[in-house]
Amino acid sequence: MYRVYSNIFPMAFKIGGQNPKSNTTGSESDYKKVTAGEFFAVAIWALGFVYRLDRLRTVLYVFFTSTNGLFNIAYAYVIARAIDLVLSLNSGGIFIFKSVYHILGLLLVLFAVQTVFQSVSGYIGNALSVTLRPKIVRAFYTKLYTLGIQSLEQPEINNRITRANDNLMNIFSFVDDVVREFADIVGLAGSAAALIAFSPLLILAMVVINIPYILWDKRHRGFIYQYSYENTEGFRTAGWTNSQLNSSISLQEIASTSSFSFLDNKYINFYNRYNKKRLAITKRWRLGNGSFGFLTDFVLLYGYFKIFSGLATGAITVGIVTFYTRLMSMVQNGLSNVFRGMNDLTWRGANGKAKRRSQNCVG
């Protein structure tokens, strides 16, 4: 979930409110992180856009994908009960298979149902990614056709078209990540609800300790997105230069004018400069993430202490120990995935206002 996707696509549909006197690649608001309300507007627009193109597949994909995370909780609980049952049966040195066959049967049913859900979700996701391609392209070039020559001659309109065209084929990936983010939320809510009965304080500590990590992650995703956005003009120029250097027709003229070295340097110098700063931001971002991630280990140690203390006093069984330890891991991973995914999606939805205003245009 770390790529800049088709949230930029609808920017090509917004031509109102332009400032032709501006010498920037776009207004500051175009790359500012959206609010929670604006993010949901973007997500709803994207889901609605895909839904209008393929209603049945979209509904089925959302259902089968979002409910898949609940199976892990069911597995953890059934296995915990199975461990307790086996230990009670084996306490006298005798294991009676017929006493646990119903648990094995339940696990088999869970395996089968999850396999079906995953298969259906995977198939529908692949089908949507294939069938939506020509429909999205058609919507894009149809809208460009309606803009008119005067609009297409404006530099900012061309920048918006460039950003949209670069990410056009990834529009379903944005929708896919929104659905998977919802699935992560469903799984997190289920595991947290089961664990909170054991220790509400543990859940609170896990949420609080993740806040510094979330804020640091959000801040540096913003740096990367803004830096990429502000270099749209450079990307457009570099893309044109690349196309000239890869064209057999253009190469003839380039050779005759001895301009190959000039164009080559123009292309590579832009990416050398861009990549140097981008890697510096990424390095600082990842180092900070690792440092804040280390803090969560102390909360997990507290959780293990609580669980093992309960086992020592006889408050919980061995099977429930495995259940709670599994839940604790699921909650921590869920918190990380949900908040990190939300940071990513809200930055990728930074053009949400333009999307919402353009939804009537793309029909």
Protein model, in words:
The protein is mainly alpha-helical and 363 residues long. It has helices at residues 36-53, 55-66, 70-89, 101-147, 149-152, 155-167, 171-196, 200-209, 211-230, 232-245, 248-257, 260-312, 318-348, 352-362. It has one domain (6-362): ABC transporter transmembrane region fold, CATH 1.20.1560.10. Helix 1 crosses helix 2 (55-66) and helix 10 crosses helix 12 (260-312). It is elongated and about 85 Å long. Mean pLDDT is 79; it is low at 1-28 and 351-363.
Using the 3D structure, state the CATH architecture. Up-down Bundle
- Provide the gyration radius in Å: 26 Å
The run of helices and strands is HHHHHHHHHHHHHH
Number of strands: 0
Distance between the termini: 27 Å
Shape: elongated
Question: Which ranges are low-confidence, i.e. pLDDT below 50, for 5 or more consecutive residues?
Answer: 1-28, 351-363
Beta strand %: under 5%
Largest sheet: none
Write down the overall mean pLDDT.
Answer: 79
CATH topology term: ABC transporter transmembrane region fold
- Whole-number count of domains: 1
Number of helical elements: 14
The CATH top-level class label: Mainly Alpha
Summing up helix and strand content along with how strands pair, one would put the structural category as mainly alpha
Percent of residues in helices: over 70%
Within CATH, the superfamily carries the name ABC transporter type 1, transmembrane domain
